[in-house]
Every structure is written in C-alpha cells, then in structure tokens.
What we know:
The protein has 178 residues and is α/β, with parallel strands linked by helices. The model has no long low-confidence stretch (mean pLDDT 89). It has a seven-stranded mixed beta sheet with strand order 3-2-1-4-5-7-6, sandwiched between helices. 32% of the residues lie in helices and 24% in strands. 33% of the residues are buried. It has one domain.
Amino acid sequence: MVSGVIHLGFLTVFPETNGYVGGYLVTNSWGRPLEFRLSTAVQPNRIQQILYGRTMPEYVCADLIGKTLIDKTTTPVQLLFTDSLAVLPIRSRTETPIVAVLTQDDPRAALLADEQYCPLSDPHSTTPLYYAARYAHDRERISELLERIDGGVDLSEPFVRIREAMAEARKMGVTQRG
C-alpha cells in the first residue's frame, strides 16, 4: 500500500523545426502545479543520426531531454506520465513507474501493443493508459496511486498546459537563455 502525499510528473518531448523540445510539469494529486521545467531545442547533427540510427529518438527524448528535466527537478514524483512514446524507455533509468497517456483516437495505441505495453484501467479516466509489460511489478503500485488521484483530474490535460506554457516561455525568450 502506498501512503503519504503523492506528486505526479507529466513529461512530454516532441520535434519542432529547431529540434526536439521537452517540458516537465510536477503536480499534486489534484493537478495543481508544483514545479515546471522546459528544455532548449536539441538538434542531432548528421553524424549523430548515422551513429545512433533507429535509437536516435529514444536517446534524444528519454536520455538527453527527459532524464535531464527529471534530474534537475527538486520535487520527487511517485508516478510519471508521458504522451511521448520515445520517452517510455526512461523507465529503465528510474525507479519511478511510467505510464503512457494517449487520447482515445490516437493511432499510436496499436504501436504500444506491438511493443510489449499493457493497458491499465483507471476508474476515473477514459484516457487510455499503458505501462511496460517488462515492469509487471509496477502494475499494483500504479493502480494504487491512480486510486489516490483526484477523480476530477484528466490525465491528458496537463500535457496541454505544458505545451501552452512552453509556447508562452518561448515568446518571453526564456528558452533563448544559456
């Protein structure tokens, strides 16, 4: 049984014209923000693309951006959510269970089934959730934590806030600083 205060992490990484960018929002169990981080754009050069091959998206999204955002955050989370499939392998680099959050009509759900991910049922959410079958021991812990999240929290909504905050930060020039 999981007890105490829980914090939730929402991590997204996606490609833009200048490279991959990421944002990380930590909230309490009812969705209020506690901490927010964003990355600058990471643009792999041609040599890196050749050397990393098909592992390039995982390396950039999970290792360079995702792990860095998590490591720089001062608020530890008990459950991590992502809407970025290339971030999912981060589970092998952290003790925190990770859950993929997809929208109802997201065609990527078929990819998850092919890549050894199991669906989760959440009584409070209609949003499809998945976790890595390789970490079957996470299922009970994830389910217990999901039960403790406020029923009014839409697990896909924080990703909208992250993207909007990133766009606003870009307008303010926050990502241009070294």
